[in-house]
């Protein structure tokens, strides 16, 4: 079961990322990425984490001490196929949401799609790295467009 969920989540994320990077950013497409992409990934995550922590899914994860304050507690929660899958879906959902925000912000600040592409790729591969790159690139235009100069 978890292999299927993992594969479906990966496929959904890949399709949404390809659309974000390659297609014209029509409002309907951006809404689809937000609600069908990010929203479905969030739903899959919520279902998985509730199921695992309640013992409804993946008994290995349910036996884990629910402790988000120690590395041992986190390791125990994600030490099963279900836990690894929901952990990955967590990354997919937040990275896609971040990529969507970057794309919208970059379009609003009139950055070229060619400049956006490597930032979005970095966000897809290593979320916080792409976000850090974007925050650095956008700084001057963001400040120039702000109320206080």
List the helices and strands and how they pair.
Blueprint: H1 2-22, H2 27-54, H3 59-62, H4 71-77, H5 81-108, H6 113-125, H7 127-144
Helix pairs in contact: 1-2, 1-5, 2-5, 5-6, 5-7, 6-7
- Classify the beta-strand content into a percent band: under 5%
> pLDDT below 50 for ≥5 consecutive residues: which ranges?
none
Mean of pLDDT: 90
Shape: elongated
How many strands appear in the DSSP assignment?
A: 0
Largest sheet, described in full? none
Cα-to-Cα separation, first versus last residue: 55 Å
User: What structural class do you assign from the helix and strand content?
Assistant: mainly alpha
Number of helices: 7
Helix content: over 70%
Gyration radius from CA atoms, angstroms:
18 Å
Which series of helices and strands comes N to C? Answer: HHHHHHH
Care to describe what's here?
This protein is mainly α. It is 80% helix and 0% strand. The N and C termini lie far apart (55 Å). The mean pLDDT is 90.
In a few lines, what is going on in this structure?
The chain has 149 residues and is mainly α.
Question: Any key phrases for this structure?
Answer:
149 residues; mainly alpha
């Amino acid at each position: 079961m978890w292999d299927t969920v993992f594969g479906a989540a990966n496929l959904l994320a890949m399709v949404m990322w390809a659309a974000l990077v390659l297609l014209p950013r029509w409002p309907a497409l951006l809404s689809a990425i937000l609600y069908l992409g990010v929203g479905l990934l969030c739903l899959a995550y919520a279902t998985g984490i509730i199921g695992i922590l309640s013992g409804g899914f993946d008994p290995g994860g349910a036996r884990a001490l629910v402790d988000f304050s120690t590395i041992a507690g986190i390791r125990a929660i994600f030490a099963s196929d279900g836990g690894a899958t929901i952990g990955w879906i967590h990354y997919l959902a937040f990275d896609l949401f971040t990529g969507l925000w970057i794309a919208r912000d970059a379009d609003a600040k009139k950055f070229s799609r060619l400049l956006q592409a490597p930032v979005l790729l970095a966000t897809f591969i290593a979320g916080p790295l792409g976000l850090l790159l974007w925050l650095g690139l956008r700084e001057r235009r963001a400040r120039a467009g702000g109320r206080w100069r």
